[in-house]
Amino acid sequence: MLQTSGHGPVADPISVHGAGRLHPDTIRRLIREGHRCVRFEYCISVVAVTFRFRTAVCLTGSWQARYLYGLAYSLLALAFGPWGVPWGPILTVRAVWENLRGGEDVTAQLLSRLEGGEPRRLPEPARPGR
Fold it and tell me: Are 122 and 107 in contact (CB under 8 A)?
């Protein structure tokens, strides 16, 4: 993650969907400002086999963006996931549930990777109606 040059350590840019390639300091700043890093699930069934996938990490600035991403991946799972027997319907429901909850928040894991330390729990962002 860190390279050394003649002038000290230099951090590699990190690729995050929705943000391009950002410098780790920029990612830390965005997270402090309330952005979250999330992953979504979807599944695809082919006859008797169902494949479960997770997206790359997406940097989202609001809970609305997380739900829009989640809705898109839920529709993908609903269209292509339930056709495998027996796991298709089970994995489809699981993917839709996770996506409509805003995806899997991996912000703490990404920060841990950036800092090279143990993962820590971040406070949940405030959502309207809670």
Answer: yes
> Which pLDDT tens digit goes with each residue over 44-60?
999 889 999 999 889 99
> Phi/psi at 17 (nearest 5 deg)?
-60, 135
Q: Which of 96, 98, 101 is nearest to 80 (CA)?
A: 96
- Return the bridge partners of 2, or none: 11
Tell me the HSE value of 12 on the side-chain side, using a 13 A CA sphere: 8
